[in-house]
Amino acid sequence: MASIGTPAIQAVQQLLEMLNQVDPENDSRGMQQRYFSFALFDDRGMLSRSLDGVDREALYKAVRSGLRNQVGRARGSIGSVYRNLSADDIKPLLPAIYQAIRDPAPSGEMFADSIRVEGLRLLAKHRIEEGILACVNYTRHQNPWDSQEGTPELMKILLSYGTNAQSVIPGLTKIADYFEKDEPNFPRELMLMKAKSVRETILAIEASTDTPKLIQLK
After folding, report:
1. Which of 39, 46, 123, 144 is 20 to 30 A from residue 194's alpha carbon, by CA?
2. Tens digit of each residue's pLDDT (9 = 90 or more) over 114-147
3. Domain limits of the chain?
């Protein structure tokens, strides 16, 4: 279906409805939903480049359901929705996006991080208060693989909150100490890189004069 291109767009509404259908008893990992997510939202999916003309309520239901999929890669495909919705159109999805950051997919760990980091960027962009602590928690419990590259990106997200992030400085200090002294099975020089990034961010937050107005999720 995804390879057919434009002529297949007429089936989008039905595919969104089918993505929303789950059968936990016979399909506990949501494999059917996984492939609908790929067909619709993955890099070459039918809706990967544009959501023009797509019924918003049907889309919202499908995204909320897809973000609960048990497989990290399936959730990751939904990142294109984050990029293709306007600021106003994405607001109804922010609680589900936040939940997908807090509760990672139990399967497909290698691919589970992308949608969570995209979600953190989105919460910061919309000045969502809950994104501050979510970013700190994710930094501490992120997949160690290549985390020396991921940690500076997370610190950029956190720093965008300005003085609002001062409340989590004690938690950041503990994370820096953990990276520097206690993280198991990780190269020492990369541990120090991560610790340095966190400590530099603490100093930047302390020196910040920017206090963007925050919004709480309801």
Report:
1. 123
2. 999 999 999 999 999 999 999 999 999 999 999 9
3. 1-126, 128-218
